[in-house]
Specification:
Strand order of the largest sheet: 1-2-4-3
Helix content: 25-40%
Number of helices: 5
Oligomer: single chain
Number of domains: 1
Order of helices and strands: EHEHEEHHH
Number of strands: 4
CATH superfamily: Metalloproteases ("zincins"), catalytic domain
Shape: globular
Distance between the termini: 28 Å
Strand content: 5-15%
């Protein structure tokens, strides 16, 4: 997978999301999902550059194996790769936050039993992935409660512009078939 070029000019007060669609199975509106990711970054007070890439099942499985050593019986829906670099920011060089990788084909398959609609599922995965980049996790019950509260807030403010739809579930199923 090639790296998208950086549109930032080194201004660290902005949140910029570089998007790429590296799959051709599901139609994706890069502008819509990039704007949602930027909204989350800004609302969380983050600045810098994040990449948001949509990949096919083969690529998400390859990334899962490469980075988590998990051959995985099932592909995952979203992976987040934060850049844990605490070095000082250099003038003119954007702060790199990390990469969020979403598999729309997996999202489509799990949406009916999870978020309800494909759009709601992708929105949850984008928000979930960005929050992981910013240090949120769901390894413990208290972390999960906090992360789901942040997801709910961002989805209500930046995606639904109102209340959560009936039938929407925040229980994150990371693997189809599990």
């Amino acid at each position: 997978m090639k790296e998208p070029s950086s549109p930032t000019d080194g201004n660290q007060l902005q949140a910029v999301v570089v998007t790429e669609n590296a799959q051709d199975v599901v139609e994706i509106d890069l502008d819509r999902w990039g704007a949602l990711a930027e909204d989350v970054l800004r609302a969380e007070g983050a600045s810098g550059e994040l990449t948001l890439t949509f990949v096919d099942i083969a690529d998400i499985v390859e990334l899962k194996v490469e980075h988590f050593g998990d051959a995985g019986e099932y592909p995952t829906d979203v992976l987040s790769f934060p850049i844990d670099d605490e070095d000082p920011v250099i003038d003119g060089v954007p702060r790199l936050l990390g990469d969020v990788v979403v598999c729309p084909e997996v999202a489509m398959g799990q949406a009916p039993a999870h978020a309800g609609t494909f759009d709601d599922e992708v929105a949850l995965l984008v928000v979930h992935g960005v929050l992981h980049i910013l240090g949120f996790d769901h390894a413990t019950e208290s972390e999960q409660t906090e992360m789901q509260a942040r997801e709910r807030e961002h989805l209500m403010n930046s995606f639904w512009q109102g209340e959560m739809p009936k039938g929407f579930s925040f229980d994150h199923r990371s693997e189809v078939g599990s």
